[in-house]
């Protein structure tokens, strides 16, 4: 096929959003010659995005470790001895401080993660306050707190939470090898609740768990066949942490990882695909291939939740070398409006019991 034919092919085949992918169609994409797959993904990418813009989010672990779940990849599960120091729910004040620092270093979204199976009733006033305070800084907000009930999803949406992250992690067939304490269906139901409450969905998975290509295809098929595509699709490469059951897992072929990004881009053409955990172990060249394959979001800042991430200045240097600009997010007309709003909110908090007792 000539390049011109291929261009027409990609535009007609993959221009629109589809929700009826079969496993075979996805496997056929994975089986394309690498150059053809990347070329197609890049064409699809350019139909909906500026190819030289990447969205940057910063993570903050608002409650660390001692999680009752048994996710085999996770350093925060109480079942594995990973030497992680557990921490109680972070004070609202401290979360705001971290969010300000993230904003100052150029992040546009602040993602707050908790090592919970699901939030408890008593946690909700604290987390909704966090959403309000971080939003007041002019940042987009995201939370990942585990499974949600209808009412909790509504409370978060009312507080103004922009995105809720909840990953499917892998294919339904491989899922039982990785997690036994909650079902695939539980995860799908939480995603439905997030959608029904009107928040944007951030849902993706992890690769490098020992799964096969058919599982990576199965994961992407589940995500793309949701009634609406998640606005944000994080693709995590397993970070192997000593003490977890997957600490000695075999490395995934880096080209297979890039294929996964490209297939996600083609299947969910309007979603931000995030090159998520695992960047510390990737070369600059591999990351640039991921951007070429259609990744257009990263976690930015030296820490993910509990594990390392490249230093912010290393990322900025990489962006400069590649001619990439961070995507902008402007909610406020100017900086003084942000500062005035924040000042008023902090003053308001001084007499608020949640402000000082959030960790109890
Ligand atoms: N506890 C909540 C939950 O699991 O629903 C939210 C936080 S949890 C850490 C969020 C996601 O991080 C997981 O679904 C998984 O995809 C990813 N993750 C956790 N540990 C990881 C690791 N070692 N390597 C790569 N991704 C990881
Ligand atoms: C996601 O998909 N990846 C992020 C975020 N959502 C919450 C978490 C990655 C965690 C990596 C392991 C750690 O730092 O604990
Ligand atoms: Fe807990 Fe989330 Fe880690 Fe699973 S991924 S053990 S639910 S913190």
In which range does the helix fraction lie?
Answer: 40-55%
Average pLDDT, all residues: 88
Bound molecules: S-adenosylmethionine, 6-(5-methyl-2-OXO-imidazolidin-4-yl)-hexanoic acid, iron/sulfur cluster
Proportion of beta-strand residues: 5-15%
The fourth-level CATH homologous superfamily is Aldolase class I
Task: Please report the number of helical segments.
Answer: 14
Order of helices and strands: HHHEHEHEHEHHEEHEHEHEHEHH
The CATH class: Alpha Beta
The first-to-last residue Cα distance is: 64 Å
User: So, CATH architecture?
Assistant: Alpha-Beta Barrel
Shape: globular
Number of domains: 1
Total strand count, please? 10
- Largest sheet: number of strands, sense, barrel closure: 10 strands, parallel
CATH fold-level label: TIM Barrel
Unreliable residue runs = 341-349, 352-360
| Computed Rg | 20 Å
User: From the helix content, strand content and strand pairing, which structural class follows?
Assistant: alpha/beta
